[in-house]
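Propose amino acids for all 149 sites.
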């Protein structure tokens, strides 16, 4: 957790070794232990590190991903038994609207992306099928406005 500072060199049989000054590694295992570090002021007084610095422990990503030149995260999940992909995507969309700021966008990939793209296509295909059925019936009964049912 602590680095060291090269203070001097040690020469043994013609080999030169750097001598580093640093604290005992076992003494500083967590953030609370940092309050034991003393700093010397300009006046020569000793003060603790926590009197001049505030240290917060935060979670951080090991790797920062980007998508379309924007920072991104990837969330992977499996559906619980009995859940449908449509219901899960609707739930995620609702939570994204509720919890995320407006400048954050959500993009889907894989099966989720295919489902969203095909969902709108299915509505168009269904509408076209109704139109074709209407045209076939109109041609068969030779009328677009008279009822045939």
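Proposal:
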């Amino acid at each position: 957790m602590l680095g060291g500072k090269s203070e001097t060199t040690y020469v043994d049989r013609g080999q030169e070794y750097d001598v580093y000054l640093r604290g005992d590694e076992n003494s500083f295992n967590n953030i609370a232990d940092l309050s034991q570090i003393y700093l010397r002021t300009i006046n020569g007084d000793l003060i603790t590190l926590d009197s001049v610095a505030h240290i917060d422990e935060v979670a951080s990503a090991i790797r920062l991903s980007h998508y379309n030149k924007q920072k991104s995260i990837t969330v992977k999940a499996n559906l619980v038994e009995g859940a449908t992909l449509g219901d899960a995507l609707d739930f995620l969309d609702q939570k994204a609207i509720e919890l995320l700021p407006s400048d954050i966008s959500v993009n889907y990939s894989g099966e989720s992306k295919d489902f969203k793209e095909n969902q709108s296509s299915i509505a168009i295909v269904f509408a076209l099928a109704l139109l074709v059925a209407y045209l076939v019936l109109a041609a068969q009964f030779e009328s677009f406005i008279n009822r045939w049912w």
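The mean pLDDT is 84. The longest helix spans residues 111-141.
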